[in-house]
Amino acid sequence: MNTEIHTCMQCHREQTTQWQASHHAKSMQKADRQSVLGHFNHFTFKNDNSWTLFDHDKNGFYIETGLKGQPGQRYSIPFVFGFYPLQQLLVDIGGGRLQAYTVAWDARSIEEGGQTWYDLYEDAHQPNSPFYWQGQFNNWNTRCAQCHSTELTRGYDLNNDRYNTQWRQPNVSCEACHGSASVHLALQKEDANNSPQRQLYSGFDKPLQHQPLFTLDPQDHTASLTSLLTTRLAFETHRLAKAEPSNAQLSKEPILTAEQAAIFDSVGNSIDSTSVSRIENHALPLDKGQASQCILCHSRRHTLVEGQGQGQINQEIIPRLALPRLYHRDGQIQDEVFVYGSFSQSKMAAAGVVCSHCHQTHSNELISQDNPLCTQCHRASVFDNPAHTLHSIPLHSTNKDTPLCIDCHMPSKTYMGVDIRRDHSFRIPNPWVNEALNSPNVCLSCHQDKDHRWTQHALASKKDAIFTHNSDIGTATLLNETVPEHAQKIIEKWVLDPSQAPMRRAVLLDLLDLSQPSHVNALNIAANDNEALVKLGVLHKLSSAPFSLQLQIGFGLLYDDNKNVRLEAIKLLSPAFKTNIPVTAQEKLQAVLKEAVATYQTQQDLLSGQLSLADLAYNVGDIAQAKVHYQNALQLQPQFLPAKLNLASLHRETGQYQQAKNLLQAILVIEGNHSLAQYNLGLIYVIEKQWPKALSALNTAANTSPDNLQFAFVYLLALEASGQIDNALVQLEKLAQHTPNDPALIEIRHRLSQSH
């Protein structure tokens, strides 16, 4: 047992014992006979194009691997990664690099199909594959280490292209979540009455506040945040502690968060109903408090710091929005996006629910099995009832074939071949949305012999109730496609409603029709929202807006307190360096640009770092430097599509059309319906006046990404320019359904009517 865990166990034996069986404790372990689960008894695994021998000797565990019919090479296995439902091997390939090997051990039981080696990806032994086992995609130092170890530094040496990666603990240990224990240990040696800091996180520097308290009142069906009396008691505790620090006691009583304490301090000692209401009606944001520690790793993100950071999400990561390509159009998980992006869409998140309401904090296991987990807050007599579930057997039945709450509200998807993960958006099943937006229908995961229409018939009596929850991303998107004028009014209302889940608001901003002045005003209001996630949604929406509007709304975000907002703002606004803007504005742009470049220069071993540096260089007009960074990214991973795409755009804009086409066609070999590649290829064919090819590519782009109205608009212009007036009129009517009062469409309609 290492020194840190032994020290913690002296006072926290129960918590340490729970942790020792957790995924956190086993996130990365030294490869030995206790930790290695797979067969290393001179076993050879073969696939269509490669082979791998698993064995061990006095020097430890190792593999030999090579292409089919060719000799192989030996590599040592210093560590194993994870333990269930699969375990990967970390392979030492030299230069300080460890690779997560692409043949993994299925740790499930034999009855479940496990206890065998299997391929994670096809063609992982082919150097030109995006999933090449020695490539960037499978590199532990850059892709895995930060979240699987404690206080890790990558230690990348740019000049020698080597790593000296260091960590405090190889796994996710106590200090990964709590922060350094040095002050905490010192406080334990002092008298509590003489230790003012003892009340604040018990000396730790990470804000793991107590979870918000919920009460299920007799007249309610669903629990709500703590009562007025409880909140008053918490206020009084804060007042006494502020007046005399010795009154502060370490206990499990409700405490005020820093934000709540600030409200108290702003109103003095008078605790009135209005002040309390401000606390009870505004749940603790996900980017503060307990959940922030989990989000730093359990999210799809661009990381801005090394190690686990201090739990300050908006200074340490740029979270990815729940948009198509990573998510289905209704917000359901699609790519490997972990938990934050779906959970931050949920009513649970908006209500103040945090991870530990469902998961034990140290074992990571669920605090209760099956439906009792849900009926903590949702009254069983109402929700665990056939009238609600539409299943004849109550969900609390012991019949193992009976669906659970999570089967309908948390659909699962399998990643890495055997790893089943659930969507945490807790959405209401909506087969009408599923059919229209081509997203998974959760009912059909059990009723596999049925279709959308059968599901819609089964839920017909619930349809009105389902669509009253139309602030969900899917229902809002469907309404916007079917009744856009009505939908735009209510979407404008939702994006400005602080009671809505922050990710919903951020994504719904993308649906606003900015040809309407009121929607531009709504975007401007959202740019001043308290939620950083909403501001990131504003910046994403602005990315497809005219540059004048980008400057008008986005410039103020360069002054934002949140680093992730500032860095996304400069990425959007850096082209302003090529325009005539006031000196004072130039100074602010320059300051944030320097901050961004300084951040990304520490990440030149990361694809995201190289891409960000390239994009910034391109935006400010330094084409040569942009090319260097795009090419650096392609050296890290030759099949990295975003770098190929952006380099192709650069070639197109500098008149190097054939080079651009080569890159775009290479992307389409890998991903045939890549809408941006089709769009850019179509633009080149327009320049070359190869109209059939241009129209085909632009039409594919518009159909593949129906939410991207720019693709549809450029396709309309191409139809007009090529003389296909009738087809242009048809396309115009499609666009007008989304933006009926767009002045540009009105002008094009006038031109087409004259040509017809």
TrEMBL record:
Residues 7-34, 140-179 form the Cytochrome c-552/4 domain. It comes from the Bacteria. Pfam families: Cytochrome_C554, TPR_19. Keywords: Signal, TPR repeat. TPR repeats lie at residues 675-708. PANTHER family: C-TYPE POLYHEME CYTOCHROME OMCC, DISSIMILATORY SULFITE REDUCTASE SIRA. This is Tetratricopeptide repeat protein. It comes from Shewanella surugensis. The lineage of its organism: Bacteria, Pseudomonadati, Pseudomonadota, Gammaproteobacteria, Alteromonadales.
